[in-house]
Structure formats: C-alpha cells, structure tokens
Amino acid sequence: MDNRGHHPNQNSLVSVHNLTFSRGEKKIFDNISLEFERGKITAIMGPSGTGKTTLLKLIGGQLFPQNGNIVVNGRDVHHLKRDELYTLRKRMGMLFQSGALLTGMNVYDNVAFPLREHTHLPESMIRSLVLMKLEAVGLRGARDLMPNELSGGMARRVALARAIALDPMMIMYDEPFTGQDPISMGALVLLIKSLNTTLGLTSIIVSHDVYETAAIADYIYVLSEGKVVGQGTPQEIKESSSEWVQQFMNGAADGPVHFHYPAKEEYMDDLLHCDKSLFSRKRLFGEKPAKRRRYS
Amino acid sequence: MEFFRSLGANTRESFTKLGRGSYFLIGMLAGISSVLVRPNLILKQMHSVGVLSFLIIFISGLFVGMVLGLQGFYILSRFGAEETLGVMVAASLVRELGPVVSALLFAGRAGSALTAEIGLMKATEQLSGMEMMAIDPIKRIISPRFLAGFLSMPLLAALFSAVGIMGGQIVGCGLLGVDDGAYWSQMNAAIDFQKDIINGVIKSLVFGFITTWIALFEGYDAVPTAEGVSRATTRTVVNSAFSILGLDFILTALMFGDN
C-alpha cells in the first residue's frame, strides 16, 4: 500500500483533500483524502450507507462539504461560479444508479438531449453522433424504445451513451452493477473498461460488487464509517491484513462490522421485559405522528 | 408544553417553506428569458397543461351556465325581469365563476399533474441527472411549465365563460322561453369591457400564476418517495384552492369595491 491518498498527485484528475461532510448529527466523511489518477479506473468500495453516492455528488458540486476541498482538473469545485461549474460539468459524465433517463423521451432523444441543449449542431450531425454513441453501447437498434420499455441493464447502457455524448474527460459510475443479471453485468464491466481505454477517460466507480469492480479497477479505496480503511491495487486489497477489508472482500456476515444492529438491552432481558404500555389502545389503534393531523 | 413546541416547529417550518418557495419563484422567473427564445418548449407544455384541460373546462362551463340559466330564471321571473337573464348569467360568469371555477378545475386537473410529474422526476433522479449534464432544470423544466400554466389559465377561463353563456342561453331561451334578442342585447348593453371582462382576465392571470407556482414548487420540494409525491399532490390541490378563493375575495374587494 502506498500513501498517495495523503499527498496531492501531479497526475490526478480529481483530488479530494481533508473532506468532512455530515448530514445532521451523522458524519458521512471524516477528514478523508483521495486521489483519482488520469486515465485510470479508480473504485470506491464500502458497504451500503457509507456515503459513496454522496461522494459523487460532492465531486459534481451538487453538495457542499463542511470542510476540505475537491479539485477537478485543477479547479476547486466548490469555489466556482455557477457558470464555471456548469462548464466543468459538461466535461464530467455521471451514470446514476437508476439511469435517470428522461421518461418523456425515447432512447434516441435522451442521448441527443445534452447535444441539443449545449451545442448548435445541425440535426444531421446530431443523428450521426447519437448513432455512434448508441452503437458503442450496443443499443443502436433500440433507439425508438421508450425508457419504460427497457430492462434495467439496457437503461443503464443508454444512460452511459448519454453520459459520453459530450465526450467528457471523466465518468462517475454510481453502483453500475447493482441489480443486474450476469449477462448485463458482464456487458457493463466490458463497456466500462473498453470506454475507459478507447476514449481515454478517467473513471470513478462507486460500488459494493467486489469481484466485478476488482476485475477492472486500477486502484481501490475501501471506505467505512467516514474513513478510508484500505487502499491499493486490487491485488494489494485482496492481500490486505485489515480485518475490516477482509470481511468486506469475503462477504463475511460477522466481523468488525457486526451482524446485529446495536440494541439497548441484552436479548434475554429484552424478551422477558414486557412493557404493558406496548399494548395500550393508543399504541395499537392509531397513534399517529403529530404532523399527519394537519389537513395536508 | 408539547402544544407550544409543535406550534413553534410548525410555524417555523411554514416560514422556511415560504422562503424556499420565494427563492424558487425568483429562479423560475429568471429562467423565463431563456425560455422565450425556444417557444416550442412552451407550446409543448401548453398542450399538456391547457389543451388537455379543454374538455373538463368545456363540460363544466356548459353545466354551470345551464344551472345559472335555470336558477336565474326562477328568481328573475318573480320580479318579471326574465329579460335580464343574459346580464345575470354573463356577469356572474365573467366576473366570478369563470375565473374561479376554471382555476379550481385547473388546479385539480393540471396542477396535480404538474406536481406529480416534477415530484417523480425528482424521485427518479431525472432533475439531478440534468444538473450533472450542466442543464439547469429550473430553466429547462420548470420555467416553460410555469409560462404555459400562466398563459393557459385566462384562455381556459374565457372558454369557460363563453361556453357558460351559451349554456344559459340554451336553458333560458331554448327551454324556458326567454326572448333570444333580449338575452343578447341586454347582456351587450350591461357588460362593461373594462370593468367586467378585463377584471376577469386579471383575476384568471393571478390565479394561473399562483396555481402554477404552487404546483411546480410542491413538486420540486416534494420528499422524493411515493408517499412524499402523493402528499405533495394533495397539498397542491388544497393550497391552490385556498389561495384562489382567498385571493378572489381580495381582488373582488379591490376591483368592485367602489360601487
């Protein structure tokens, strides 16, 4: 393991320095530093609820950190003016977990959408570009389908075609493999890898699918409870001595991350301790939160 | 103690929401300039907001007019003043019922649809996705819908009043035997363009503004879950109805208060 997470790297496209972000009382990130190298696929792994998606939103400037900064291509994302942020975002593709396709438009129009909004290209050229992007993800034949006619894997591939429509310098993938059948999963793994190589992209993958991600990532950060608990190449991560990383990589039910959510009382005490108020009429029939009583 | 605590919390929440709503309004109005250069965006929304509300407005207007003709005839005939039925029907429609009832129907038909659409776009990350594509969802999605609602409302209210007047004529003259010429000529003489029609148009513009704003804001501000969107849709209809009826009172007092 090296310690490049703590020193800004000349070759980084995205650098996260001393980032702290909380939601209410809960600290999502506690002073973490990450580097994403140009032309490489870097993965952020960790169990659900560790704020992986939040990290992508922070990099994209949709959320503001309480502390620390994020530099993308030499520019501090959270100190940009709105216009400058939008200019930067044109070069940052993002693939949402749901695909986030516009449901009112067909596949073709969805991919054409950023081109039509940001460029003044003639329709004939937009057509060529859209067909090229759709061909790259293997869905040129599905151009007339509506988003509700697509399977989950196809929707994600269309969203990928849309994300590369403006030829970005980087793509952020939010849980690209979640809920995919083995075939779509294989297709997506192949696509992410090949797009990264052929288009010279920098990819950031947020995922908890260990094998798929490890197969294509150049570097992996493992997050837990707001901290980086492990980092390195996939090989280094697999050989990590950290119990935590081992539990995550091997999918063990119990370990440093406990199977049981913390409870106030011991199991036996809890079973024997019967509180009569639990069975009161008020609790059984319609104890509603105060807010619901309002007219709306 | 609990009562005061929740009263305080609710008041604070209401004011914060009003603040968010005003901020949203400023953004929405600022986005209008960029929409004006792309009229096809507005036309497309006017179709779904306005044209698709046509049928409900048409049918409701017709029945409201017919009922007005019937009730008006019974009352006016007591004083032997059936000939002024046209004035009664037209004045009540153009001044009050046209703008108010069509706005209420508009809130139920188009307002709720707008809230659900925007709320679902938020829940399915479409708005977020657009932001990441460097496209401002307020400019691209909200402002065109706002303009469409604002412009459709007076047209729908005018349609409502026109159809209502026809309905009154069908019942009054066709069934109850009021003189056709008297119906139209009395109306022509008594209805004032400035006082009645323009004031009615102003009312419907105000209602269109407030209803569309509420609908779009509730959608944009909705909790992005199924329950959140459903609550937001309910709030749109309830809050729009309150605002329309309350504002109608204020506007009527301002417009017709001096006679």
Topology at a glance:
The complex is a heterodimer of chains A (about 300) and B (about 260).
Chain A: E1 12-23, E2 26-37, E3 41-45, H1 52-59, E4 67-72, E5 75-76, H2 82-89, E6 92-95, H3 107-118, H4 123-136, H5 152-163, E7 170-174, H6 182-198, E8 202-207, H7 210-216, E9 219-224, E10 227-232, H8 234-238, H9 243-250, H10 267-272, H11 281-284
Parallel strand pairs in A: 3-8, 3-9, 6-7, 7-8
Antiparallel strand pairs in A: 1-2, 1-4, 4-5, 9-10
Helix pairs in contact in A: 3-4, 3-5, 6-7
Chain B: H1 2-30, H2 32-36, H3 39-49, H4 54-78, H5 85-123, H6 126-132, H7 137-175, H8 180-190, H9 193-221, H10 226-256
Give a written overview of the molecule.
The complex is a heterodimer of chains A (296) and B (259). Chain A is α/β, with parallel strands linked by helices and 296 residues long. Chain A has eleven helices and ten strands. Chain A has helices at 52-59, 82-89, 107-118, 123-136, 152-163, 182-198, 210-216, 234-238, 243-250, 267-272, 281-284; strands at residues 12-23, 26-37, 41-45, 67-72, 75-76, 92-95, 170-174, 202-207, 219-224, 227-232. In chain A, the strands form two sheets. A six-stranded mixed beta sheet of chain A has the order 6-7-8-3-9-10, with helices on both faces. In chain A, strands 2-1-4-5 form a four-stranded antiparallel beta sheet, covered by helices on one side. In chain A, α3 (107-118) packs across α4, α3 (107-118) packs parallel to α5 (152-163) and α6 (182-198) packs parallel to α7. The longest helix of chain A is centred in the middle third of the chain and has 17 residues, at 182-198. With 259 residues, chain B is an all-alpha fold. Chain B has one domain (2-256). Chain B is 87% helix and 0% strand. Chain B has helices at 2-30, 32-36, 39-49, 54-78, 85-123, 126-132, 137-175, 180-190, 193-221, 226-256.
